[in-house]
Amino acid sequence: MRAPRNGPGPRTEPGGNGFRNGFRNGGPRRRTLLAAAAAVPTVALLPGCSGGDGRRGDRGRSVLRFQSLAWQKESVDANKQLVAEWNRLHPDIPVQYVQGAWPTVHDQLLTSFEGGEAPDIIHDASDDLADFAYGGYLADLTDLLPRRLKDDIPARGWESGTFGGRVYGIPFLQEPRVLIADGVKLRRSGVRVPTADAPWTWEEFGEVAKELTGGGGYGVAWPLKEPVSVTLNLALSTGGRIFRRRPDGRAEVRFDAADQVVPRTIHDQVNVVRSAARTTLGMGGADTLPGFFAGRYAILPLGFSYRQQIAQQAPKDFEWTVLPAPWGAGGADQGVSPQTLSIAADCPRKEEAMAFVDFLLRPPNMARLALGDWMLPTGREALKAPELHEDRHGWATGTVLAHTLRAAPAQSVRGYPEWKDKIATPGFQEYYSGAIDLDELRQRLVHDGNLVLARYQR
What we know:
Elements: H1 28-38, E1 64-68, H2 73-89, E2 95-99, H3 105-114, E3 121-125, H4 130-134, H5 147-152, H6 155-158, E4 162-163, E5 166-167, E6 170-174, E7 177-182, H7 183-189, H8 202-211, E8 218-220, H9 227-235, E9 243-245, E10 251-253, H10 257-271, H11 289-293, E11 297-303, H12 307-313, E12 320-324, E13 334-336, E14 339-343, H13 350-360, H14 363-373, E15 376-377, H15 395-400, E16 405-407, H16 416-433, H17 438-456
Parallel strand pairs: 1-2, 1-3, 8-11, 13-16
Antiparallel strand pairs: 3-14, 4-5, 6-14, 6-15, 7-11, 7-12, 9-10
Helix pairs in contact: 2-14, 8-10, 9-10, 10-16, 16-17
């Protein structure tokens, strides 16, 4: 799974996913790095090695350290097995598996970068890379990428790991946001069941949620402890982007009609129609599962990888199904922040490290990693694996949605983490709860938000 952040493991919401309970956002070290990155001009993105000072001299040309953030048994096993296979085939280029953790990875990496002890090969998520790329901590992979790997991942995938026109992260796992529905409630309601080719529109979704509300239960439960990435990524389906580029290349926040469709829908479901449960607004995704199994909510908008927890925890007689997320004027597109692999800028053996990454991401191996994490591979060939096209547990539904996934529009914006933490998160939380209206939300996102971004784009 992308970032295990609730439930059996330290999962956070995806997205922008900041697939994520605030573990990685905030804290003094992150603010320090953001301030330093703001002072570095874009052209200072460093190609290749930033070191040359021998900080890794104690390890010389020995073992390459691969820090993985896999956390559930299937995923950890797949990663460790692939490392073992590599070591059997390449005894002269040994790789050591190092276990990392999603909740602490940002601060842990920053500390290790500053101390010259960063792992050589780094597993992270694309929305966590900008600070490290602009800070010169990650190697420029543009000219190191093998042709096979470069051609296998679509251009839309590479956008998520590219900063300043250079590649700093290789996207390899991703997940769409889907609707997990109570199959019995859905069938008894008589509503049209959406397919990947014909999803519900946002308006239709609103009507369905109202239809499924009653008898003490709600049509939908929005777990919005981290509301920003969910809102921004789903807004692509309505033509919204929130962030636009001015002619001079600088980013600015806008909150136009297309950007407002998804927030309005959620707000009205909670506060006007009352087809969405207010109590779940402060929850993470896994927190809503007991209520879902108990029949209190008919539909849960969740990341695709939550299917694993549902499959493991649902009562034996509970019937659930996976449906595509609603769409609007922007079609079925939605933003994602894929899991990525990077190489440290001060890694003394970048070519060998890239050879290992290439091995790890060969189509059969990428498919193994995706299945272990209940996510989708970014590679075209891996996506053809028969197991990813089975109807069981909704695999086929998610695989069909792979072509709709786009790089989250916010992740390349300088100052986005601070805007998210200080402006957008409290703003959306108050709007969804009914504490402020849409005009107040817009004022905060745009006026206050652009003041934040301006500091990073001088």
